[in-house]
Amino acid sequence: MRALFAASPLAIALSAAALADAPRLPDSLYTLLGAAHETGDAEVFAQAVRLIALTQEPEVVAAGADALSAQAGARARAALGLELMAVEAVTGEALEDAGPDDDEAEEPAGPVSRAIGFVANGKLEHWSGRVRAGLRYDTGNVEREDYTFGLQVTRALAGWGFEGAIDYNYSEIDSRVGRDELIARARGERERGERWTNFIDTRYEQDQLSGFDWKAFAGGGLGYRVYARDDLAWTLRAAPGARWTKDVTGDVDTFAAFDLGSEFQASLTDAVRFTANTNLLFSERSQADQVLALNTALGAVWSVELRYRYRHQFNPEPGFQSNDSRADVALVREF
Question: Where is the signal peptide (predicted)?
């Protein structure tokens, strides 16, 4: 017993030392986190958490939120993509912190509830993005049908961000297929300070009316944010990687590749936004892509987008032109 009591002060001292050495938020960032928590707005708090996570490890940010309350810790982990830890943090203490008006625990939102909420307010839990759809139909001397569909999504994960996009374009002219094209992209990105990023990028293209069955690219590299404001954003990227092509005969070729990219976005007015994305892919069959878009808001979640895409093939397949372009107008739904 004497040995036990004698060891207790030593154990306490060692625990205190370990806590003192543990990484913690700087006082200025902790004050910012606390101010966001005091607003009572979950979205404001989540934005503050993601902002602080650009310069601090996710676990450190979550620990700082835990110091505010169990509920704040759970919300911080959810915002950072640490859902499994967030579930453990949501206990009776979190329910007590919710306030006197929240006497009963809320049931987790099911798929139907989430779908209704998405349609009603344009928000999807943990995800943000946009859906784009366009239609054109001409009759007379020429019958023409054009369809375009696009989906873009982003999500913040633990220390990483995820972006994905799918574009599908289809057209018929006098009952003959004029275009049948699918483009898919996915990128994982990790911030390295205020301007630099590391990223992994993948792309896949399938065109039924070209000299290939499909093309794919995978690589990783560095990004640099020239501007990172709400009204003006410009990011430059460079990524070495590999490119695969499958031609109509079924042969799959692999080439070394190097991809250069530029993503520019500017708010011309409160309702009008301009974007210009450029990619230059150096490989055995090099190509350059330019996508320009002008987006005009129609409300909180709806907008109209005028989009123009230009592609130049430096070494096109025999019988195909080196230049290809497309312009379309689409209705966009933000979420």
Answer: 1-20
